[in-house]
Polyglutamate biosynthesis protein (Viridothelium virens), 374 residues
Amino acid sequence: MTSTRSFQLIFLGDVMLGRLIDQCFPTHVHELSEGRIVEQLKQSDAALRSYGLASPWGDTLPLLRSADLRLINLETSATCHSIKWPNKVFNYRMHPANIEALKVARIDYASLANNHTLDFGEAGLAETVKTLRSAGIHSAGAGLTREEAQGPAKVPIEANSRDGDQDHTIDVFSASDHPQDWARVPNFHFIDYSSATKSHLHRIINQSNKISKSSLKIFSIHWGPNYSWKPSEEIRDLAHFLIDECEIDIVHGHSSHHVQGVEQYKPGKIIIYGCGDFVDDYALTSGYRNDLSAVWRITVNDMKQAPDKHDLVPTKLEVFPSRIKDFQVQLLNKKDNDHRWVCDKIRTLSQDLGSTSSAFLGEEGQLVFELYDK
Ligand SMILES: [Zn+2]
């Protein structure tokens, strides 16, 4: 098996550009009380007075743009619809015009299976899906139909360089284990940990294989309770099932609000249990440091298995620690105590999950896990 070229895929956790962040953008939905809060904040914070569509990403933009593909969990609806899903504590939306913020960072895929895409009902979800589509951003996990929700999104990745290099298609599925209330919405991909869910996942992933073979399979999941360092046994069991029985290569987990460990489950297979909150306006929960997160970059190599058969194999995971401040992400310098906090936390939690190779610090201060013995 020989390796030709490689691609870099970036994974981010929750990207919540609604509520106060939406009010900071020049165009925003009409929310009087949130608008007043932002006007007050701007009086003492000069950076917020010039907040624009590139601002949420802060100094991570060059890193994001340099990758071949970028995948996020979009933790908000993008809609002007104003009728809230009833009896919910938080209902997030951003103005559809602010989808431009995702385009600034060249986001390729947005997971819509989470506890906020239906915050403004089915009408709000429909506008969110259409807004992403018109911006050329792929999505799955929720959609206009059941089929769109269950996916996969077929995301192209172009080699466009040397002779003999091949373009690829990546299958991306998304699902969420909450809110329970949305299990009855057919165009929301709700899952639990039952054998019925496993049969369902096995079927839809196999079906996609029959339609067209992809080079890499990713499953992006919003799972588990908030503020819990260790994934439950049922979460770990489902992650292993996706790899063992469904040919998934990368499990992209999120929802916990803070970083969790990674599991090098098998050579060339990786589970990120919790990416953390990438950017949002949330209050700080100090013990869990939900203001600290990371840019997760996975290198996949084109392994030529036969003249007409290519497969992308994850070979390296790099974790670039980051912090949210004033609704903006900053990459952390390795001299910063918070940089050490993120690295130590991910190292320890990953060891607890049985990750075998120890992670080391790369030249850019990123935590490096080798995933494949070349
Ligand atoms: Zn969530």
In short: The chain has a mean pLDDT of 94. The radius of gyration is 20 Å. The chain has ten helices and 18 strands. The domain at 2-370 is CATH 3.60.21.10 (Purple Acid Phosphatase; chain A, domain 2).
